[in-house]
Amino acid sequence: MTLRLIFSFMLLTTLAVSSPLSVPPYFQPYHLTRREVPVFQIQQELGALLSENSLILLPSNPLWLNTTKRWNTMAPPDIKVVVQPANEVDIPKIVSAWCTTINFLVVNRGHGLTKSLGAFKGMQIDMKQLRSMNIARDGKSAWFQGGAYAYEVIPFLWDRGYVTSTGSNQCVGLAGPALGGGHGRYEGLYGLAGDNIVEMKVVLADGSSITVSDKSNKDLFWAMRGAGHNFGIVTNLKFKIYPAKIKTWHYHNYYWRQDKLERVFMELNKLQDDGRTPPLLGVVFGQIYIDPSIRRDEAILWFTFAYAGPASEAERLLRPFNAIDAIKDEMGDVPYPEIPVRQNTDLSNCISAPFSLASVMLQTWNITTERALYNHFMRNVALYPDLAVTARLYYEGYAHRGVQAVDSASTAYPHRDEYHIA
């Protein structure tokens, strides 16, 4: 399973904006891996066009490795030049100048997972300088530039008395997960991150800039909330925000031996089956893995629960899990911005490595299947001992009431009736 941190990139190849009789040059078919990239020409010509403090990086630059580093280093894209704009107005200039010559990969935090990234060759447009955030006067929405990410967004809003739906990991961007749906701890109350997009400023593949909302370019507004990574570059997003009425969150982390597997998943089904997870139970994350500090020859079950409220409320829900004998457990009440740290989804846990990933979305946990997966995991660890260090079975379950409250026909997101990720 992969945490649904979901996609931090936008390939500009698939916006059909004209009739079949008039195909624009940027929509002509070509093979992504065969186009030559005139990097020195790009550096020379763009340097005169871009704002002060914009960067154009070639592989010889000391900043190159850090700028092109990705969370998953398995089959990385073939980046020939990196352009890091200092201003939103730079992006249309970049695209319009080179839209018929080079492919663009737009990167925020580098968490894109699709295997097609390995076939990409071209320019990386790096959004890291574009991270401004501004709350609207009415206090109902806020604007975030395309480089904003959860580590900064969550405390920015919290310190001003607000929250919104973001991805569940601190290190992922705001736009990337939202364009693909965007699971997070507040979706039980406010829906997916993508459900909270009010408006987007988008640069299309020919360099033109448009507004996308329920009043302007409505077809794109539908498509880009759930399937939005390939239509253009999102330079700015207007998001719904909400008063932070819940001042404390409770977390409870459990470590169980494998003989408790059936009972743990039975209780999870009672709590979460068919989308019944209480809306304040923001997320349940789980892992099956080898923890050498506990057992070197047996994978354990680790599950962490996050509840929007104090222990006095949360522990009533967790009584069935407290009754399952654990190796150890940890719990506490903290402000919302600290919850990712307690659930191991903070920046320190965003370790870059070559991952081979697969996932599935489910409505219920099949206990027989979970036992078979555990046994398969242990057989492979025995055959390939190095897997004991890195291999994981991951589990995610979110409160779903806010997601189901949104009409499935109103966005392109296709998984509103699937509640778990594994």
Name of the CATH class of the largest domain: Alpha Beta
Total number of domains: 3
| CATH topology value of the largest domain | Vanillyl-alcohol Oxidase, Chain A, domain 3
> Spatial order of the strands in the main sheet?
16-13-15-14-18-19-17
Major sheet details: 7 strands, antiparallel
Output mean pLDDT: 90
GO molecular function: FAD binding; oxidoreductase activity
Family: Belongs to the oxygen-dependent FAD-linked oxidoreductase family.
InterPro entries: FAD-bd_PCMH (IPR016166), FAD-bd_PCMH-like_sf (IPR036318), FAD-bd_PCMH_sub2 (IPR016169), FAD-linked_Oxidoreductase (IPR050416), Oxid_FAD_bind_N (IPR006094)
Signal peptide: 1-18
Descriptive overview:
23% of the residues lie in helices and 23% in strands. The protein is an alpha+beta fold and 422 residues long. The protein folds into three domains: 9-126, Uridine Diphospho-n-acetylenolpyruvylglucosamine Reductase, domain 3 (2-Layer Sandwich); 133-243, Uridine Diphospho-n-acetylenolpyruvylglucosamine Reductase, domain 3 (2-Layer Sandwich); 249-421, Vanillyl-alcohol Oxidase, Chain A, domain 3 (3-Layer(aba) Sandwich). The protein has a seven-stranded antiparallel sheet with strand order 16-13-15-14-18-19-17. It has a five-stranded mixed sheet with strand order 1-4-5-3-2. A hairpin with a 5-residue loop joins strand 9 (197-203) and strand 10 (209-213). The protein is globular. The termini are close together. Mean pLDDT is 90; it is low at 1-34.
Chain-wise SSE layout:
Layout: E1 9-11, H1 39-47, E2 55-57, H2 64-68, E3 78-84, H3 90-98, E4 104-107, E5 121-126, E6 133-135, E7 141-145, H4 150-158, E8 162-163, H5 175-179, H6 187-190, E9 197-203, E10 209-213, H7 218-223, E11 233-240, E12 242-243, E13 249-256, H8 261-272, E14 281-289, E15 300-307, H9 311-317, H10 319-322, E16 328-334, H11 339-342, E17 361-362, H12 367-383, H13 387-390, E18 393-398, H14 401-404, E19 420-421
Parallel strand pairs: 3-5, 4-5
Antiparallel strand pairs: 1-4, 2-3, 6-7, 7-11, 8-12, 9-10, 9-11, 13-15, 13-16, 14-15, 14-18, 17-19, 18-19
Helix pairs in contact: 8-12
